[in-house]
Write a structure and sequence with these properties.
Layout: H1 13-25, H2 32-44, E1 50-54, H3 57-67, E2 75-79, H4 85-92, E3 96-100, H5 112-117, E4 123-129, H6 139-147, E5 150-154, E6 162-163, E7 166-167, E8 174-178, E9 191-195, H7 198-207, H8 216-220, H9 240-273, E10 291-292, E11 298-301, H10 308-317, H11 344-352, E12 353-356, H12 364-378
Parallel strand pairs: 2-3, 2-4, 4-5, 5-8
Antiparallel strand pairs: 1-9, 6-7, 6-10, 8-9, 11-12
The structure holds pyridoxal-5'-phosphate.
Pyridoxal-5'-phosphate binds near residues 57, 58, 157, 178 and 180.
């Protein structure tokens, strides 16, 4: 339907063969592929973490809050500009979400100053996002350590990103990754809970599988005949099919990120060549030298006087899919009254942001076509 969709998974015969192999072998849940995927994932992050594969990033975030005993009476700092999963999981454990503004109209990560301002004696944890795959302000790690705030990284956008050689996902107490269909590493539905703290990882393993001490594979292999239940838990497990696809996707992740970087460079080049750069504000064009972004999405900010719907419809008529990352929480009917924190910059971005297509299979001609369509809109 789209000439250029917002994203396309980067699949080949490797992923197809991997999933067929799981079928042929006949063991579909919590087996060798999941355990290999966890091992390879920890290695990819530098080796000093434990990984537990789960059914989604949301599951990993929920597990992280439960593992940290966050609940009623606690406050959790979250970005004002993020996917609603960060807000939902805080509500689910009965804690109070406190939203933090972005740093600026060109840095859509959490503002260090606003983060600092919104800490109270009740702040027990913080969920940070590395927006679009650009790592957050690392001073937040030090601040959380100093204030004894549990730091949970939402790395849904940031698989493969790093600061000073340290991978995102290893910069806090716990981290959650997404392998949803549109992510840099896509398996359909899936996620990873990661922690450098053995205690948290152990709790996560219990929480993702009914609080049980033994997996069905161990019982099937005759290693254990029964199990104990140590804590109330959930079923947040991943399937072997998804883990097998994940193993293949992990192998091509860095190459995909390099392709994404080239496409982002092309966007910036063509936008200025077609004289639409003055109209659009592109965030994260500048980032510190020691930062390696993951280039997950390509967001842009429209001028105040432009009707976003009209702009997106113009792209649609040219066969270009676009999206919004993210609508403000208070625009959702279920969250009209709950969110009262002042976050003026995030609010402005929420009403003017538009996300353009970005995926490794895109060509430089695709980028030029999109930039020409944008220029045509502004030159109308
Ligand atoms: C920033 C952010 N956090 C969390 C999630 C939730 O991920 P999942 O769909 O794997 O639960 C997403 C998904 O798009 C996301 O973008």
């Amino acid at each position: 339907m789209w000439k250029i969709p917002l994203f396309k998974p980067d699949y080949s015969a490797k992923e197809r063969n991997a999933l067929l192999k799981v079928f042929d072998e006949g063991w579909l849940a919590m087996g060798k592929y999941t355990s290999r995927f966890e091992g390879e994932f920890s290695k990819y992050l530098g080796g000093n973490v434990e990984s537990a594969a789960v059914s989604s990033c949301t599951a990993a975030l929920h597990i992280a809050l439960m593992a940290a005993n966050v609940g009623k009476g606690d406050e959790v700092l979250i970005p004002a500009l993020t996917f609603v999963a960060d807000l939902n999981v805080v509500m689910m454990v009965g804690a109070k979400p406190v939203t933090v503004d972005v740093a600026s109209l060109t840095d859509w990560n959490m503002s260090f100053d606003d983060f600092f301002r919104k800490i109270t004696p009740k702040t027990k944890a913080a969920i940070v996002v590395h927006f679009a795959g650009y790592p957050f302000d690392p001073r937040i790690t030090e601040l959380c350590q100093k204030k004894k705030i549990i730091l949970i990284e939402d790395c849904a956008h940031a698989i493969g990103a790093s600061i000073g050689g340290k991978m995102c996902g290893t910069l806090g107490d716990m981290a959650a990754f997404s392998f949803y269909a549109n992510k840099n590493l896509a398996v359909g539905e899936g996620g990873m809970f990661v922690s450098p703290v053995t205690g948290f990882a152990g709790k996560a393993r219990l929480l993702r599988s009914h609080g049980m001490t033994a997996l069905s594979l161990e019982r099937n292999l005759g290693k254990l005949i029964s199990y104990d239940v140590r804590t109330p838990g959930l079923n947040y497990r991943i399937s072997e099919i998804n883990s097998a696809i994940g193993l293949e996707q992990l192998k091509k992740l860095d190459k995909g990120i390099q392709k994404r970087k080239k496409l982002v460079d092309k966007y910036i080049f063509f936008l200025s060549r077609h004289r639409s750069s003055a109209a659009l504000t592109i965030p994260f064009v500048q980032y510190p030298e020691n930062v390696q972004p993951a280039f997950h999405i390509f967001p842009a900010l429209l001028p105040e006087n432009i009707e976003r719907k009209e702009f997106m419809e113009h792209l649609q008529s040219a066969g270009i899919q676009s999206s919004i990352h993210y609508p403000a929480f208070r625009h959702f009917s279920g969250y009209k009254k709950q969110i009262k924190d002042k976050t003026p910059l995030a609010d402005a971005i929420s009403s003017r942001a538009v996300t353009l297509p970005l995926y490794p299979g895109m060509s430089h001609q695709d980028v030029e076509y999109i930039c020409k369509s944008i220029a045509a809109f502004f030159n109308k």
